[in-house]
Amino acid sequence: MALLTALILTDDDAFRAQTGDALRSGTVPVTMLDERPAAGVVQPDLILVDGREESQALAAIERARAGAPAVSIFMIARTVTPDLILQSMRAGANEFLTWPPDATFQEAIARAAARRTSLSPARPRATTAAFLGAKGGAGTTTVAVNSAVEIARLSRRPTVIVDLKAGMGEVTLFLGVRGRYTVFDAIENLHRLDVEFLRELVVKHKSGLEILAGSDHFERPASSDSPAVEQILRLLTQQYEHVVIDAGNQLTGSSTAALYLADTIYLVTNPDVPSVRNAQRLLDRIGQLGACADRVRVLLNRASEPYPIPPDQIESALGRPIHHMFRSDYRTVSTALNSGVPLSMTGNTELSAQFDSFTRGMLELPVEAPESGRRGALGLQRLASIW
User: Fold this and answer.
1) Residue ranges of the chain with pLDDT lower than 70?
2) 4-119 and 127-385 have identical folds
3) pLDDT of residue 36
């Protein structure tokens, strides 16, 4: 799945909003640029031109094509005529679509994604995973941190975890590191933000994982920071091959920006009534926001028999399958958190096998058979023990 960065050229806020919603409702993750980027920052993969005023639109297409020969350009017009289609293609448009967007819009997005991949096959595309909790204390940070450590270990590729929780981020605490800078510093210095500056903001863990720490400000990042958060995450995808996001347990503007960008959204919930209710409401809201439901995976945490609510009832309530279940092991996890050592590095072969299995699934790597002597052969079971 290709990740696209889109720019909408229009003076009509309603057109911008409706087109943006259509972009984000499909299976291809798309992030938005608020304005034309300056030299040296992220350039769009896709430009959508408001073609309801034909003469102005054709001139805008010509300028866009001259400035970005490889970009995909969509002409969105009110009516379809053979002459207008021909003129827009001669000006440089790749696609001609009608307003308002319909089913053909998503087909055009898929073609743009394929075009982008074919034009830059040598550059590995970053994969982005966002972890969102159904409620506080669900174990979202535990899952995100330990998954990120294992991704870095198994892939041996540049991996970063971003803590987006305002004021209460615990990623660095869980990893036993202390950084000088946070995501707040990135937001406040957006005017000078580039790959080199971001490299100065992260702190490196001994596993090889890099961390962009959570803000110390309780009110930041705020909803008004969501464009900055999108830009930060886009730049990280240029520098790293794997980006993991701890999005917290609330749908703020900043966490929503992360969901729009993510290839996969992991919704972490527990087998109790408040958690399942919250998970159900979050799934509904994610669908309303346009972050495609196909990208959401449900993780059931603290799932040990006897279940407060059986997994099959949870699946029925949520209307989707449980992607993975994690059994409760409070003592082991509590010890790991208090020591600042990830579970996969504690020396417990059972826990190492569990995270190895889960993250191999994320990376689409073959699952190794458990070593002899490991209790329960958990590498072959669906249940894992993390919190």
Assistant:
1) 1-3, 34-42, 118-125, 291-292, 347-352, 368-387
2) yes
3) 58
**Per-residue pLDDT tens over the stretch 59-93:** 888 888 887 777 889 999 888 888 888 888 888 88
Domain locations along the chain: 4-119, 127-385
Three-class DSSP labels, the chain: CCCEEEEEECCCHHHHHHHHHHHHCCCCCEEEECCCCCCCCCCCCEEEEECCCHHHHHHHHHHHHHHCCCCEEEEEECCCCHHHHHHHHHHCCCEEEECCCCHHHHHHHHHHHHHHHHHCCCCCCCEEEEEEECCCCCCHHHHHHHHHHHHHHHHCCCEEEEECCCCCCCHHHHHCCCCCCEHHHHHHCHHHCCHHHHHHHCEECCCCCEEEECCCCCCCCCHHHHHHHHHHHHHHHHHCCEEEEECCCCCCHHHHHHHHHCCEEEEEECCCHHHHHHHHHHHHHHHHHCCCHHHEEEEECCCCCCCCCCHHHHHHHHCCCEEEEEECCHHHHHHHHHHCCCHHHCCCHHHHHHHHHHHHHHHCCCCCCCCCCCHHHHHHCCEEECC
Which CATH number applies to 127-385: 3.40.50.720, 3.20.20.190, 4.10.320.10, 3.40.50.300? Answer: 3.40.50.300
Q: Give pTM, 2 decimals.
A: 0.73
4-119 belongs to CATH 3.40.50.2300: yes
Q: Return the pLDDT at 176.
A: 85
Q: What is the pLDDT of residue 359?
A: 86
